[in-house]
Amino acid sequence: MAGLPQIHHGLNVADLELTKSILRKLGYTGTQPDAPEPLEFRNIESDPVGQQTAHALGDRYITHYIENPATGHQIDLIEIEPAYIQPRPSRAPAQGDLTIGMHVGDPYEAYELMKRSDPRSSGYSEPVECPEEDGIRFYGLEGQDFIFTRRPDAFAILHYNERDLPEAKRFYEDVLGFELVEVDSPRDDARRYRIEGAGGRLEIEARADVTVPDYEKQSKRYAGANHFRLLNVDMERVSAKVAETGLGGFLLGPYPNGFAFLYGPTNETPEVFDLNVMKRAMEAAGMKAAVPA
User: Fold this and answer.
1) Is 254 in contact with 239 (CB distance < 8 Å)?
2) Closest CA to 135 of 158, 115, 155
């Protein structure tokens, strides 16, 4: 786990192989480094993971993460069966969704390449300048919100309706143990926060016009951003706080290797890694630094 990147973002798609072929043109690998073949999960007795996640992702789904070797950015693709995928609750990112920031050489060239490579390109929006990120912003790949940036690092912006921000803040700070630090916002109608200590750049944006999905009906089955990764959590603390506060819970785990999948109270789905397990793994490998920067 020594090289575990925080810049790992989940993306629901209808066609995993098509999406991989498009992203390969932008510098992403075609295979997962430690799993050449996609993984299939089913809602059957012999598949406990598939049984636990069926209510969120349907009775059958396939996953495969790919990465950009130049930036370390990972995209965990989740192909959901057509019978289970739901319409997006809004064109713009809904509560708990991500805007994914990807490093590219020339943002406009990369946009045109992605659009030309995608037979569903009629659903793409026109790119708009995003000067605060030295790039452009647009909707693509079945409605996902992207920022293509010339900056070297990938990142994500997590969206909330401002009315639910206090509850989300309690989840991040009281349950997960992170601090939300307010930062400058490029929009007058929004507030921005940085999740401090999560292992990489992950920011929250809260606005009054963000759609709040019907969690029971839509879960995370619609196309677009599905989950994000947080490093450096104290799993023992999280388990106790979930029970104490009733804010969120475990979708998967926690497992002995320090991994767990959580669901939050306001449509967020973080995958988390335990700080103490990571420390032991890095110390066993003879590494001085206890946690990733």
Assistant:
1) yes
2) 155
Print the domain residue range for 31. 8-284
Task: Determine if the pTM surpasses 0.85.
Answer: yes
Instruction: Determine which of 36-50, 88-102, 160-174, 216-230 has the lowest per-residue pLDDT on average.
Output: 216-230
What is the DSSP code (8-state) at residue 121?
Answer: G
How does DSSP assign 124-187, residue by residue? PPPPEEEGGGTEEEEEETTTEEEEEESSS--EEEEEEEGGGHHHHHHIIIIIS--EEEEE--SS
Judged on CB neighbours under 10 Å (0-12, 13-18, 19+), 188 is exposed
Q: Is residue 279 part of a domain?
A: yes
Tens digits of residue pLDDT in 26-60? 999 988 888 888 999 999 999 999 999 998 889 99
Residue 235, domain CATH? 3.10.180.10
pLDDT, mean of residues 272-289:
66
The pLDDT, as a whole number, for residue 142 is: 87
Assign residue 177 a region (left: φ > 0; alpha: ψ between -120 and 50; beta: otherwise). Answer: left
Neighbours of 124 (CB within 10 A): 18
Q: How many domains in the chain?
A: 1
E strand or H helix at 271: strand 270-274
Mean pLDDT of all residues in 211-233: 84
Spatial distance between the Cα atoms of 121 and 266, rounded to a whole number of angstroms: 31
pLDDT tens digits for range 89-101 = 889 999 999 999 9
Q: Determine the Cα–Cα distance for residues 276 and 278; give it in Å rounded to an integer.
A: 5
Decide if 179 is inside a domain.
yes
